[in-house]
Amino acid sequence: MEDRATKLRKLNAFRRRLPHCSASALSAIIADVKEHAIPEGRTDRKAFRAARDSQNGALTPYGPILQALVVYDKHDKVKEMTYANPFAMLWTASAECNSFSAFFLQQLKDKPPSIEKPWHLVLYSDEVTPGNPLATLNKRKFHAIYWSFLEFGLNALSREEAWFCIATEYSTLVNLLSAGLSQVIAKLLMVFFFCRGHQYGSHWCLAQVWG
Which range of residues forms the domain containing residue 189? Predict the structure, then answer.
């Protein structure tokens, strides 16, 4: 039977053979494989991408998660931008993630939304620069836009798991749009208020998600 030092050397060698990921991430992966075994079928990058696209394209009561948003460039020509429908995201997260569903329901019980006291929507935008930040033209730079609810509380909002990504778009494309990022934010805000065509539409839609 191998002693502890031998086991630790093998564990370290195993980690060094793999592409970089944090120690906590690798530990979680190994623990999950031990509990659920390795998923059947292919496990390369194309397979992961196909699995992601399959979920994003799956129908919900609010359509697929990924949908097209119409925007306009500086010459008033129509462009399309992909976004993650917030209602489809909420529905999927509540249906498939037990921990989020339990947290969400508890917040709704503690702070029930109503027409008189609606929940507060929070949007956050950040420009991300992969690669060399000093490059003259970094075509990989993109805007990432997230949303959440103020009623989730400070403890939850300090964790990335409480924020939903609604859109990512290359900065080169955003810069070509009329009003740039301002138009993108305005269009995304309108997504939350599409139901029934009036200001209380989002309250009605969200009530269907958690109802």
Answer: 64-210
pTM: 0.79
Q: Around Cβ 151, how many Cβ atoms within 10 Å?
A: 19
Within a domain: 154: yes
Q: How far apart are CA 95 and CA 45, in angstroms?
A: 26
User: For residue 3, what are its two tokens?
Assistant: 């002693």
pLDDT digits (tens, 9 = 90+) for 157-202: 999 999 999 999 999 999 999 999 999 999 999 999 865 444 444 4
The single-letter DSSP state of residue 41 is: S
Instruction: Give the residue among 135, 160, 134, 133 at the shortest CA–CA distance from 148.
Output: 160
Evaluate whether 128 touches 144 at the Cβ level (below 8 Å).
yes
* Residue 206: inside a domain: yes
Other CB atoms within 10 Å distance of the CB of residue 132: 9
* 84-98: burial string, b at 16+ Cβ within 10 Å, e else: bbbbbbbbbebeeee
Any idea how long the chain is? Answer: 211
Tokens 């000093």 correspond to 134
Residue 52 lies in a domain: no
